[in-house]
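Notebook entry, cofactor series.
This is the third protein in the set we're modelling with a bound small molecule. For this one the ligand is zinc ion. I'm keeping the input format identical across the series so the outputs can be compared line by line later. Sequence and SMILES below, as received.
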Amino acid sequence: MSSPQQPFRSLQRTEAQARKALLEVLAYDLTLDLTGSETEFFSRTVIRFRSGGGETFVDLKPLALHAIRLNGSALDVGLLERGRFPLATAAGENELVVEATMRFRNDGEGLHRSVDPADGKQYVYGMSFMDAAPSVFACFDQPELKAPYTLHVRAPEEWVVVANAPGRQVEPGEWEFEQSQPLSTYFVTLVAGPYHVIRDEHDGIPLGLSARASLASHLHRDADELFTLTKQCFDEYHRLFGIRYPFGDYHQAFVPEFNAGAMENPGCVTFRDPLIFTSRVNRGQRINRATTVAHEMAHQWFGNLVTPAWWDDLWLNESFAEYMGNRVTADVTQYDDAWADLSYARRQWGLVADQRPSTHPVAGNGAVDATAALQDFDGISYVKGSAILGQLAATLGDDVFFGGTIDHFDRHRFGNATMHDLLDSWQRAGAGDLSGFAEQWLRTAGPDTIAYDRAEGVLLRTPPAEHPADRSHTFRVAVSDDGGRWHTREVEVAGERTLVPGLGGNAVVLDPYDDTWAVVIPDQETVDALKTQLPSVSDGRLRAGVWNNLRNGFHNAAIAPDDVIDIAVASLPVEDTEDTGRRTVAWLMRDVAPLAGPDALARLHKAAVTKVDATEVGSEQQLAAFRAAIRTASDPAVLRSWLDATPEGIELDLDLRWRLLGRLATLGAVTRDELRASFDAEPANEARVALTGALCSLPDAEAKAYAWSVFTGETDLPNYEVVAAGQALWRGPDELTEAYVERYFAELPATVNVRAGWVLAQAAEAFFPAGSVTETTVTRAHEVIDRPGLDLSLRRVLVDCTDQLERQLAVRTAFPIDR
Ligand SMILES: [Zn+2]
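Returned structure with ligand:
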């Protein structure tokens, strides 16, 4: 099983406040022995803390608790219950010593341990975020109880160990680390294994990069770019914040099977290692990596130097790091076109989340406990929050914006703070009264919808019915004339109806440059005009804005699927094919094509193949078009011919080979033996994930049963493969997958017994029957949503996925297709 859990209790906000009032943590001394076995490790924690005297508890999730001593007295280990051990503290200084055996995990949390299929080497990294620290060491696990850490690690002799503070190997396999700056528990990490390490230095800051040994040559190829980005960002953050990076070394570790993009642990940031590219990638993937690097660096100040007092302000961390990371990437690195790519990659993540029934204000969600807070950790926290901070920065000007930010860093250095503290800092810096702004944009959920009524010559603003608001919007509108030339003008929308005389034009694209935060919907004349005019638009940001307009319209059943396909066929968004599932081509395939006319897939395929031939040999656009051609292919002979010989300018690398094999598997045109032989020929980690996806994509009962055994936990796979299996299950055919629709709803609630945290929700989403666009499935989903006692994160996934189904049904009803 991935992480067999007793149902641990998540820390309540009121409990955190009480513990904070009682305790001041002075220091942690932490010893980890990773040499015992491949499944478990030894953990010894010494916590020195000052107490007002009285009852509290320490958080601890061990496999076995061996000993616990408070101020020298042994306590009964049997008192551990559901991740908590009760403590009767003495007034004054206390010392707690805990010795326990902990479990290595394979779900990307706690201490994750994995085997590299390329060479059989084993790797470990720590992920303490949100409730996971106590599965590594005993702690008072809440962000407001910061303390310095001293770490001692015993590891196999051929391993390298990196952690938050600088460290060294004092004798073979024995590693000692300096005392760190004060850290919240959720930042504590170590990265241990036969990692390949590359070092550099900039402006007095020692820099490091590491990745699995099998990735060493790829890490070397990327090291120059990564170090250059890091140095450019350090210089810019130092200039903007006026405060030096305070955590000593800056190590960036690329680690296997990491759930998020990255985690900002002070001094030792962990990244998902597919970000070390082993196959050819396009610029979108490089921009995504660059903004991730810059985002985690922004956190070193915002989040790490000053940390939220409680999880309800986690959004502020993410909004700020998202805004600063994107801005700095565009301003000082080679990726000065980052904003266009971000518009494709991120905008809909936030806008769609903000239109779900689960929408919530950016700020001030209460977050009664840590688990509840995690539910609101979504596109609203990152993208909407960032958009609003961007508007604020534009309104205040950089002097006030950064003046307030620096005041905030100075006042709460190495401590904790709240949104109110930041607003106070901005007001002190000259921002004026921000309470109205905060109320309308940060404390009110949902986006306004803005549409153009051409006949009346007005822009109509509709606030969300359930979250009334009165927000004004200033944004640019791009209008095309009959000759296909584009003109931009600024409008201000301050009421329900705003007259925009003389807007005229052919296509009218609202807010293409993401100036405000609203669901902007194009009218039918615009949609029709785009079929001929989009192909000649060369402004990357305008093209991205057009696609966001189209996606908004489709999401609200205001644009016919065949109109979207027409535009895509005329102007394939090849700048945007990175497979994150959030981007346009993935969206076309998943949401639009199934609701469009029966030839939609064939038309997209023809457009992609034409584009491969029409684009410059060896160009990024050609690669992107080729990927789209693979995704849309339905003739195995064509795919086979590409396995034998790719078009000139494109090399068959590992990524493309598995894209081809995966598509062949879905079409039932490859055997298990061929798939396994292909993996054995180049047994890389990403190939293992692709193999699992392909095996579950095959159109036979055995494949679907195997995928299902992954969902139920009967087959135990690491996190990436769980998601791959879920996505593959539903690739059809319908007659084989049908039975799993009902089984999903019946068996979903029990998945809390086999996985937890991030991967619990990821699996629920990946295995959701998103292609079953029927009233029956919607009804069945609501029955489970309404069931008392359903796990919070499962409910959240169901609510969102079901809303998506209902929107798909609405499109089908509005634009019926003869089949
Ligand atoms: Zn972040």
